[in-house]
Design a protein that fits this description.
A: 264 residues, 12 helices, B: 265 residues, mainly alpha, 2 strands
C-alpha cells in the first residue's frame, strides 16, 4: 500500500512539474477552472431569484449539492484526471510498457495523469460547503458531528465516480475512437451537480440510484451533511461503492485481455 | 476549388468510419439536453415566468439553442492546427499548391457536413418529442435570416479556433487559452443560461464580445423577441466580427510564418 502511495506521489509531483513548465498556460487553466465552477453557483443564484426551492432544495442546500459535486469532481481530476491515460496508452501502444511493471496496471494508468489546476475546483467546493453551512446556521458541534459521515459519503462518491469513468474509458480497448463514450460519461457526471430529486419519474429515479448511481455522487452526501447520520444512506453508499469498484475492476481485467498492442 | 471539395468529402467519409463513436456522441448529446430540460421543467413547476421567459420559451431556448450550438461548433480545430505547427506538418502544406487556411476551412466543412446529418436526425427527434412545447415562430424571411445567422456563427467560432491554433507559433501549449476562452464563450454566449438573467453591466459587457452573436441573439431572434430588422442588424454585427477576426487571422498568419521553424522536417 505504501509503495502505491509513493508512486502516486511521484506522479503527482511529475504532473505538477510538467504543468509548471508552461506557467501561463497553467495559470489560465486554473483561473478558467474556478470560473467554470463559479458559473454553476451564478446559475443557481440567478434561479433562486425567481424560485424559493428546486425540487424541495433551497439555495443554501442546493449549494451543498454543488459543493459536494465540485469536491468529488475536483478530487477525481486532481488524483487521476478522469483516467485520461487509458485511451492514450491504448491508442499509442504504450500500455505494453506498463503491463510488464511489477505493479497493478490499472493503478498505473489511473495515476498516469493528475491535473494540479483542479485543486482550484476543490478549493471552490470547500469554500461553498463552508459558506453554505454558515448560511444554514449550523453550529460547530453540528458540523463536526456530521463531518465523519459526510467524509464517508464523499469517499464513496469518489469511488463510484472513478468506477463509472473506468467503465467508460475501458471501452477504448474495443474502439480506437472512444471519445463518444467518454462524452456520455462526462454528461452523466456533470448532471450529478443538480439535485436528483428533480427527476420526478420513478423509473428515472431508480435508474439514477442503481444502474447509474448519480444520486450517490453529490445529492446523497449533501443530504447526509444536512440531516446527519442516516443508516440506510450510508450503507447504500458503501455497498454501491464496493459493488461498482469491484465491477469496474473485473471489467478492466476483462478489457485488458482484449488489448492488442498498437506499436510493438 | 475541386481539390478543396475533395478535402471536405474525404473528411466527411472519415468521420462516418467511426460509427460506434458517433452513436455514443448522439447518446451523450441526448443526455445533455435531457438534463437541461428536466432542470427547467422542475423550475417551472412552481413559477410561470423566469427572467421574462415562459416555460415554452425556455424549453425552446434550450432545445433550439442546443441544435444551433452543436451545428455551429467546429470541434477542436485549435488542437488540430497546434499539432500541424508543433509537429512540422504545416511544412507539407506550405510546399503544396494549397492555401492552408482554405485547406483547414474545407476540412472543417467536411466535419460540419457529417455533424449536420447526425444532429439534424437528433433535432428531428427533439422537435417531435417536444412538439407540444416548442415555439415555431419564424416566417420564410425569418428562416432565411436564421440560416444565415447559423452560417455566420459557424464562421465566427471557426475563426476564433484558428486564431487560438495560430497562437501555437509562439506558445508551446495553447490548451489553457482554449479552455479559458471556451468557458468565456459559453458564459457570454448564453449557452449556460440566457444573458438576460445576468446583471445589466455583465449583459452589456457581453455585447463587446463576438460570443453573444453565436447563441443568445440568434435564439432571441428565433423566439420572436427580436424583430426582422433587428435580425438584419445581428447579421451585420456577425459580418463585422467575421471581418475583424479574418483580419486578425491574416495578420497572425503572416507573423507566425516568420516565427515558424518547421520542426520535424
Amino acid at each position: 500500500m505504501l509503495r502505491y502511495l509513493k508512486i502516486w506521489k511521484i506522479h503527482v509531483r511529475a504532473a505538477f512539474m510538467q504543468r509548471m513548465a508552461y506557467r501561463l498556460n497553467f495559470f489560465m487553466i486554473a483561473v478558467a477552472v474556478i470560473i467554470h465552477a463559479s458559473i454553476t453557483v451564478i446559475f443557481f443564484k440567478v434561479l433562486f431569484g425567481y424560485v424559493n426551492n428546486i425540487a424541495g432544495w433551497n439555495f443554501n442546500e442546493s449549494m451543498l449539492i454543488v459543493g459536494s459535486f465540485l469536491l468529488v469532481d475536483g478530487l477525481i481530476w486532481t488524483t487521476c484526471a478522469q483516467l485520461t491515460g487509458i485511451p492514450k496508452h491504448i491508442k499509442l501502444g504504450t500500455l505494453d510498457g506498463l503491463i510488464v511493471k511489477p505493479i497493478s496496471t490499472q493503478f498505473l494508468v489511473s495515476v498516469f495523469r493528475a491535473d494540479p489546476e483542479d485543486w482550484g475546483r476543490v478549493a471552490t467546493a470547500l469554500f461553498l460547503l463552508t459558506s453554505s453551512a454558515i448560511a444554514l446556521n449550523y453550529s460547530l458541534a453540528d458540523i463536526f458531528s456530521r463531518l465523519p459521515y459526510y467524509i464517508i459519503a464523499i469517499a464513496c462518491a469518489c469511488v463510484i465516480t472513478y468506477s463509472v469513468v473506468a467503465f467508460a474509458r475501458c471501452l477504448s480497448f474495443w474502439f480506437t475512437e472512444a471519445g463518444g463514450t467518454w462524452y456520455i460519461c462526462e454528461n452523466i457526471i456533470r448532471s450529478a451537480g443538480y439535485p436528483t430529486d428533480i427527476y420526478s419519474h420513478v423509473l428515472v429515479r431508480l435508474l439514477f440510484s442503481t444502474v447509474i448511481p448519480l444520486a450517490f455522487m453529490a445529492t446523497v452526501p449533501a443530504k447526509i451533511f444536512i440531516h446527519g447520520f442516516d443508516f440506510w444512506l450510508i450503507l447504500s453508499s458503501i455497498a454501491l461503492a464496493v459493488i461498482f469498484f469491484f465491477a469496474s475492476r473485473k471489467f478492466w481485467k476483462f478489457a485488458l485481455k482484449h488489448y492488442s498492442s498498437a506499436s510493438s | 476549388m475541386k481539390k478543396y471539395l475533395t478535402i471536405a468529402k474525404n473528411k466527411t467519409q472519415a468521420e462516418f468510419s467511426h460509427r460506434a463513436n458517433v452513436f455514443a456522441y448522439i447518446g451523450g448529446n441526448m443526455l445533455d439536453l435531457f438534463v437541461q430540460v428536466v432542470i427547467w421543467t422542475a423550475i417551472f413547476s412552481s413559477v410561470d415566468i423566469v427572467g421574462g421567459y415562459s416555460k415554452p420559451e425556455m424549453i425552446t431556448y434550450v432545445v433550439v439553442g442546443w441544435i444551433f450550438m452543436y451545428l455551429s461548433t467546429n470541434y477542436g480545430y485549435e488542437e488540430y492546427i497546434k499539432k500541424d505547427i508543433h509537429e512540422g506538418k504545416l511544412s507539407n502544406y506550405l510546399i503544396k499548391p494549397v492555401n492552408y487556411l482554405s485547406y483547414i476551412s474545407f476540412h472543417s466543412i467536411g466535419r460540419l457536413l457529417f455533424a449536420f446529418s447526425i444532429i439534424l436526425l437528433q433535432a428531428l427527434f427533439f422537435i417531435l418529442f417536444f412538439r407540444g412545447t416548442l415555439i415555431f415562430s419564424l416566417n420564410p424571411a425569418g428562416v432565411l435570416i436564421f440560416i444565415l445567422m447559423f452560417i455566420f456563427s459557424y464562421a465566427i467560432k471557426f475563426s476564433i479556433s484558428v486564431i487560438i491554433g495560430f497562437m501555437s507559433f509562439w506558445a508551446s501549449d495553447v490548451s489553457g487559452l482554449y479552455f479559458a476562452l471556451n468557458i468565456l464563450n459559453r458564459f457570454l454566449s448564453g449557452a449556460f443560461f440566457p444573458i438576460a438573467f445576468l446583471p445589466a453591466t455583465v449583459a452589456k459587457l457581453s455585447y463587446f464580445f463576438p460570443f453573444i452573436y453565436t447563441y443568445f441573439l440568434p435564439i432571441q431572434f428565433y423566439l420572436g423577441k427580436i424583430s426582422l430588422s433587428g435580425g438584419i442588424l445581428i447579421l451585420a454585427g456577425q459580418a463585422l466580427w467575421i471581418a475583424v477576426l479574418y483580419l486578425v487571422i491574416k495578420f497572425i498568419w503572416k507573423r507566425g510564418l516568420l516565427k515558424f521553424e518547421g520542426t520535424g522536417i
